[in-house]
Amino acid sequence: MKPLGVLILFLTLYVNQLFAQTQENLWTFGANASFINLQGDNNEKGINFGLPAISLSRYLGGGISIGGQTSIADVDNFSTSYSYRSLDGFLKINFAQGKFIPSLIGGYGFSQFADGLEREGFFPSTETSRTVFGGLTFSIYLTNRLAINLQSTYRSMNENDGFDHLQHNLGISLGFGSNDSDKDGISDKKDKCPSVPGLKKYQGCPDTDGDGIIDKDDKCPEVKGLEKFDGCLDSDNDGIPDPEDQCPNKKGTNEMNGCPDTDGDSVPDNNDKCLDEVGPIENDGCPWTDSDGDGVIDKDDLCKDEKGTKENNGCPVLSNEIVKTLNEFGSRINFPANSFQIIGRKTIENLINIKNLLEENIDGNLLIEGYASSDGDEQYNTQLSINRAEAVRDYLIKLGVAPERLDIKGYGEENPLEDNESQEGRAINRRVQFKSN
Fold it and tell me: How many CB atoms lie within 10 A of CB 223?
C-alpha cells in the first residue's frame, strides 16, 4: 500500500476517537500493520512488514467474540521474495474488563506465499496452505470504543507450500453497533437507565424495593413506600414522610416538623427538656428559674442568690433611711480646694461611722458620687471629683468594707448645693454624696 493510503487510513480512524470502544460493543473493526517472522531451520528469520491487516468481529457475551481477518505483506526468504496473504476465522476470549484487556485468540484459515509466477485463482492451491493459529491479544482502550491492539500468533501450515511463521499485528480497533451496557436485556438506545440493570416494564430502570416507583424517582429506593410520598413511608401516619419527619415514630404536626408538642409551648418534644412544663425556646422549653424568689428570673438577676428588686436588676438595695443617714455623715466630709486628700479627725470619724453602718446593713451596694466647686476649668474639676470619690472608696476599703459593695462616679461642678460665688458655698460644694447602687 502506498504511504499516502496508510496516512489517510490512520487519520480516518483517529477522527473516530469520539466513538469509544468497550468489550460490550457488538461489532469491532480493526486496522493494523503486520510483521511476519518465518520459522523453521532452513528459513531466514528476518522481520517482514505488511499492510493492511484487517479484522471484523462480533461480541457474543461472556468475554467471547468470533470474527474474521485478512492481511497482506511482502516476505523475503533469502534470495526469494513472496507476496503474502492470509484469510482466517477466529475465536477470541477476554480475560479481564476495563481499559486494559488481555485475550486468548485462536482459529483456522489459509495462508499464501506467492512467488510471482502466474497461476489461476486468488489463492492457487500450489501456493496456499491450510493454517491453524493461536496466540495472545492485548487491547488498550483510549475511549469507550477506540482501542490500541497488539496481537501475536503462531501460524502452523498443514501443507508443504508455505512456511510456519509468527504474525504480529499492531493497530487500532473501533467498536460499533447497538449495545447493552448494564446487561439487562434492553439496548442502551431504549434503556432510560443504561448504566444500571433494570426491568423491561420500567424501560430498563430498576425498582429495588418493588413499590412500583423506579429508583431514580424514588426518594427511598430501599424502602417500600407510597407514591404520594415519592416512594417513602409515613410510619407515624401524621402526613409527613419519614425523611422529612424529625420524629418519624411519633405523630406530630407540620409546624413542629413532624414532632409533637406535649406541653403546648411551641417547642417540639425532641428539643424540649421539660416536656410537661411550658417554657420558652431560649431555655430549651423549660420555665425560667428564680433561685432567690425575688421576682427577677435568674437570667436577668445580677444577684441570683440574694433577694433584690427589679429596679436594681435583682440585687438588694440599701433603704432610703440608711442612705439618708449615710449622706448625713457624708456632708461632714470636706476637702480643701484643689485637693482630694482625706484629712482631719472629724472626716475620719465620719468615714468610720459610714463603715459601721454598712456592716450593720449587709444587703445593698453603695455609689459614691464626687463633686467639685467651680474653681478651675470644667475638665479639671471633673477629674478632681472622680479622685475625691476614689479617695473615700479607698479609705472605706482600708477600714474593711468589701470592695465589691462600692462604686464611684465623678460629676465635677454639677449639682452644687450652695452658691459658688462665696467661699463658704464653694467649701460645701467640695463634697461626696451616697446613693444605693
Answer: 16
What pLDDT, on a 0 to 100 scale, did the predictor assign at position 7?
38
**Whether residues 383 and 352 fall in one domain:** yes
Pairing of strands 165-176, 366-370: unpaired
CA 425 vs CA 334, 372, 382, 422, 431: distances in Å? 12, 11, 18, 5, 11
From edge to edge, which strands make up the β-sheet containing 406-410?
Answer: 406-410, 366-370, 432-436
Alpha-carbon gap, residue 212 to 234, rounded angstroms: 17
Does 18 share its domain with 163?
A: yes
> Per the domain annotation, does 273 fall within a domain?
no
Q: How many CA atoms lie within 13 A of 182 on its CB side?
A: 20
Q: What is the pLDDT of residues 323-336, one digit of tens each?
A: 898 999 988 898 99
- End residue of a domain, out of 215, 233, 251: 233
User: Would residue 217 count as lying in a domain?
Assistant: yes
Residues 6+ apart with CB under 8 A from 9: 31, 52
Residue 128: closest CA among 163, 152, 169, 165 = 163
**More reliable by pLDDT, 3 or 361:** 361
Residues 58 and 144 in one domain: yes
In this predicted model, what pLDDT tens digit does every residue of 52-61 receive, in sequence order?
999 999 999 8
The verdict on 196 and 136 lying in the same domain is no
Q: Are residues 64 and 146 in the same domain?
A: yes
pLDDT score recorded for residue 206 = 94
Residue 12 has pLDDT above 50, yes or no: no
Residue 254 falls within a domain, yes or no?
no
In a domain, 300, yes or no: no
Asked whether residue 252 carries a pLDDT value surpassing 80, the answer given is: yes
Per-position DSSP letters for 121-137, written without gaps between them: SSS-TTTEEEEEEEEEE
Q: Which domain holds residue 326?
A: 320-436
Helix/strand/coil for 117: coil
Instruction: Tell me the C-alpha distance between 334 and 330, whole Å.
Output: 8
Under 8 Å between Cβ of 238 and 244: no
Alpha-carbon separation of residue 322 from 244, 319, 354, 388, 435 (angstroms): 64, 5, 10, 22, 10
* β-pairing verdict for 64-77 and 80-94: antiparallel
